[in-house]
Design a protein that fits this description.
The complex is a heterodimer of chains A (230) and B (362). Chain A is α/β, with parallel strands linked by helices. Chain A is built from 6 helices and 10 strands. In chain A, strands 6-7-8-3-9-10 form a 6-stranded mixed beta sheet. In chain A, strands 2-1-4-5 form a 4-stranded antiparallel beta sheet. In chain A, helix 5 packs parallel to helix 6. Chain B folds into 2 domains: 164 residues, no CATH class; 172 residues, no CATH class. Classes of the chains: A alpha/beta (230), B alpha+beta (362).
Chain lengths: 230, 362
């Protein structure tokens, strides 16, 4: 297994009490598969993604990526793991306005200590893979919403991650463009052999998933594959 | 600096505006520094140019500070100092301000009276009771050449040499014999009394200055420390230095304010970079590097403009001193304080939560 959440519980302060966002979640995501996580707003989907991305440390339970227990790492080590092993596709593309599409990707190499020039070739290859090679030198404001999201996906794959975490990638797109993005993520998951979690509220995207699970009030309710337990 | 460089180019309007502010502040600091040094030179160059390492004043009354204006030393005192072990030279020096006249031209001058042959005055061997040595500014102001005559407090005197550019309390220096000086100033009210204003000492490391002061009833300080005994220099220099200090503080504050707003504006980008795995240290380095580039470029441009302005006024009546000390030192301080101001502002990068990058609305 590449990504494993074991008995993860996460609570937030809520006035005098604490709100349970994740309630004893256990989830395994093998490499080369796409697990779709669905659920209503506030169900805990984004919290699950944040825990898997090491952006929040859970109250209890463990998160393991490739035999590394990430919940035992300090902040700096978690940052290193994020840039080397985890790709994040944000809900909004979150591209840096000063950078061209290619530079958005090259930045990933730079923050991992590599020279941007040497990363240029891979950046262009990835942009080509997401159909954005012709727009490599355009800045975000020169791109459409769908094009920005493609760059967002390519950036997440730049450092060859083993885990791909995708947060509502089609929320700002129409249905047709959303379907193209989901197809792209599915294809790249298989091509790059990433363990992918796709958080979505759109059930029409579920056909692309290898596994589907639903989160409700912080608990995993359903499993269509038997790989998911609560 | 990968993202920082691109930010500088992308948001060039904003950075150009901030850079212009830095240029203008640096220009102002540079001009003020040149003027402060120039004015200071007009006040003190005659003292700092003396071939002596210590200046001896008459011991001031209790509660009073040393003052060139109030000091009067006697012949016994400078003879006492001349006998003190470790003192290789003790020369009396009379200082007063009066008017020099030649034809229809009258100008205020500082009269520096020394003994004939004293090494305190340039060409001191050409001084006697009927001659003077002029500084070049005094000669220019009076339109005199060697061999010309001037009247100093009613005494006709012949110019035997024009040498140096000594100035004291914003007036050019005229070197005279001690006797001539007595007649022009009469600080004790008795022109025949053998007195001077101070004693210029040249000492070795073995000189016991404290014991010498006790024996002679004087107060001795280093030549540099004696500058504070020039009343006009202390007040003028203090005011100008205060203005410079405020400009440095304002500069740091403005730069700090700019980078505070800039950091807040790009906190969303910082959150994304952190979420993608950028280390906080790398982000801080990037932001600080950006500030340093902006500061260095702005400060060097401002310094170049100040130097150009200084070169333009060189040789005119504006007392502007153009030197590495007056141009580069303020520039270095501006950069250091600016980086400090920026560092205090961008430290908020450490508190940006990468989790906010996951939100639906940044």
């Amino acid at each position: 297994m590449t990504l494993t959440l074991t008995d993860v519980t996460l609570t937030y302060p809520d006035g005098d009490t604490r709100l349970t966002a994740l309630d004893h979640i256990t989830l395994d995501v093998p490499r080369g598969t796409l697990t779709a996580v669905i659920g209503p707003s506030g169900s805990g989907k984004s919290s699950l993604l944040a825990v898997a991305a090491t952006l929040i440390t859970p109250d209890s339970g463990t998160v393991t990526i490739d035999d590394t227990t990430v919940t035992e790492l300090n902040r700096a080590e978690q940052a290193t793991l994020r840039r080397r092993s985890i790709g994040i596709v944000f809900q909004q593309p979150n591209l840096l306005p000063a950078l061209t599409a290619a530079e958005q990707l090259q930045t990933m190499a730079v923050i991992d200590g590599h020279r941007p020039a040497t990363a240029r070739r891979r950046a262009l290859d990835l942009l080509d893979a997401v159909g954005m090679a012709e727009h490599a030198d355009r800045r975000p404001h020169q791109l459409s919403g769908g094009q920005r999201q493609r760059v967002n996906i390519a950036r997440a794959l730049m450092n060859d991650p083993t885990v791909l975490l995708v947060d509502e990638p089609t929320s700002a797109l129409d249905h047709e463009r959303g379907a193209i993005i989901i197809d792209l993520i599915t294809r790249l998951t298989h091509q790059q052999a990433t363990a992918t979690i796709l958080v979505t509220h759109d059930r029409t995207h579920l056909t692309a998933a290898d596994h589907i699970t639903e989160v409700h009030d912080g608990r995993l309710l359903t499993s269509e594959t038997g790989l998911i337990s609560s | 600096m990968y993202v920082a460089w691109r930010d500088l180019k992308f948001a060039r309007g904003r950075f150009a505006l901030m850079g212009a502010v830095i240029v203008l502040i640096t220009l102002l600091v540079g001009l003020l520094s040149g003027l402060t040094a120039g004015l200071g030179q007009q006040n003190i160059s005659a003292i700092t140019g003396l071939p002596a390492d210590r200046i001896t004043f008459a011991a001031p009354a209790a509660g009073q500070k040393l003052s060139y204006a109030n000091s009067t030393v006697t012949a016994e005192q400078w003879q006492q100092w001349a006998r003190t072990p470790g003192v290789t030279n003790a020369e009396p020096l009379g200082i007063s301000t009066t008017r020099a006249t030649t034809g229809t031209t009258t100008t205020a001058v500082s009269v520096f009276g020394v003994r004939s042959g004293s090494r305190l005055a340039p060409a001191g061997d050409r001084l006697d009771d009927r001659s003077v040595v002029l500084s070049t500014t005094a000669a220019d102001d009076l339109g005199l050449h060697v061999g010309g005559t001037l009247t100093l407090a009613g005494q006709p005197l012949t110019v035997t040499a024009i040498q140096g550019d000594a100035s004291y309390s914003h007036t050019p220096v005229v070197w005279t014999s001690l006797t001539t000086w007595h007649h022009t100033s009469a600080p004790t009210g008795d022109p025949d009394q053998n007195t001077a204003t101070v004693i210029a000492l040249t000492t070795t490391s073995g000189a016991d200055i404290t014991a010498g002061d006790q024996a002679a009833g004087t107060s001795t300080v280093t030549r540099g420390d004696s500058l504070s005994a020039i009343g006009s220099y202390t007040s003028e220099n203090g005011s100008l230095q205060l203005m410079r200090g405020f400009l440095f503080a304002i500069s740091a504050l403005v730069i700090g304010a700019f980078f505070t707003v800039w950091t807040i504006q790009r906190s969303g980008d910082v959150a994304v970079l952190k979420a993608l795995g950028a280390s906080t240290a790398a982000l801080l380095r990037d932001a600080l590097g950006q500030a340093a580039v902006l500061l260095t470029a702005g400060t060097l441009t401002g310094t170049a403009l100040a130097a150009a302005a200084g070169a333009l006024v060189a040789g005119t009546s504006v007392p502007f001193q153009l030197s590495p000390a007056t141009m580069l030192t303020p520039a270095a301080i501006m950069i250091a304080l600016g980086v400090l101001g920026a560092a205090l502002s961008i430290r908020r990068i450490t508190s940006v939560d990468p989790l906010t990058a996951l939100g639906s609305a940044r």
